[in-house]
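Give me the 3D structure for DUF1918 domain-containing protein.
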Amino acid sequence: MHASKGDRLVVHGRVVGQQDHVVEIVEVLGPQGNPPYRVRAENGHETIMSPGPDSVVDHRKASDRS
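Predicted structure for DUF1918 domain-containing protein (66 residues):
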C-alpha cells in the first residue's frame, strides 16, 4: 500500500449495514509511502493507523473531487 499526504484512506465496513470509514492522510510515517499513516477524521480526531486488507487508498486529493 502506497499513499501520500492528502490522499484519502477508505476502510470498508465489515458487516452488512456498516458504512465505509473515510479519513484523510495528513502524514506518512513509513518509508516510501508505506504505513503507518497519521490520519484525520471529519470530526478532527487524529490517530496513527496501519491499515488492514479491508482498506484502500483513494489517491485523489480533496481539491480533485467534484
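The longest strand covers residues 21-28. Let me know if you want a second pass.
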